[in-house]
Structure formats: C-alpha cells, structure tokens
Amino acid sequence: MINSIKILYDPKVDEKEVQAISTVIEEIYQIEVASSTIFKIKKAAYNKKRKQYNGQKLLNELIDEENLEFFFWIIKDDIYVPVMNFVFGLATQFCGAIVSFYRLESLEMKIKESVHECGHILGLGHCTNLCVMQYSHNLQEAIEKPSSLCSECENKIKENKRNFEPNKD
Asked: Looking at the annotation, which residues are catalytic?
C-alpha cells in the first residue's frame, strides 16, 4: 500500500513553502509526507542554449541513479521537456515527480501544481472534469483550474492506494 511520500527540495526553495505543500498533500491524499530533504540540482541537465534544465533528465536521475521511489522534488529553476518550451512539472506514475516554481508566483499556484504532480505519482492521469488534475496549456489555465480533486479522481486514488504494493527489491 502507498502510505508515504518523500519531499526533496532545492536549497533555493523556501522551507515554509515546502511545509505548506507537505500539509496540503497529507490532507488531500491522506498520505504521510515521510520527510523533507534538501537535494541540489546537478548541472549536467542544464541546457545553455535554452537557459533551462531538462526536466526529464532531472527526474530520471533521481529514479535511475538515486533509486528513489515515491518522491516529489521541488526546484526554483525553469524546466522543459524536449517537445515543449517549458513545463510546470512532470511525473512518472507510482515513482516520482518534479515541480518547478520558476513560473509560479503565488503560494496558491505552487501548492496547486504540487498537488497535481503528486496526483500523477499516485497513479492519476489528466482529468477532463473540474479538477486539479486538468492539463494546463499555459499559466492562465493553471490559475483557473480548481485546487481540489473531483470525486472520480478521489475514488481512483483510494483504489490505487489499496491495490498498489511498492516494489520491495
């Protein structure tokens, strides 16, 4: 059963924001935030031409090299994936996620996008209902979507938490 998640954060991220996000994640997903740990960004994923970090490389590093499971990494720097100009965050289901605060000015937006990416970790896809799991094409859509899960996504989370057993290798 999925019962806890670890939050990593870049030293440039305000610890008070990390604590606020931890509290909301625990409330919404009924899951324990096991710990919050500082984790610095490695420069190998930096693209000098774009002046951004390749988010997929950063995420893969934690999954493949650090062997982390059920983690959520918060950074202040701008990230992208090769087919997009930027992303607020990205995730691998039942594994981990990264969220960038670079384009998110308010604590409300930082929390909303963190809840969204955490939903992906816990097995949710993008949702077409009025839900925090809606896909945001731009900042305005991210602002306009709600900060809570719809009942359909709430039910999927409950089912996933019951049915998914983490790899114990």
From this structure: 117
CATH hierarchy code of domain 4-161: 3.40.390.10
Q: Does pTM top 0.70 for this prediction?
A: yes
What's the pLDDT at 2? 73
Domain locations along the chain:
4-161
Residue pair 129/101 in contact by the 8 Å Cβ criterion: no
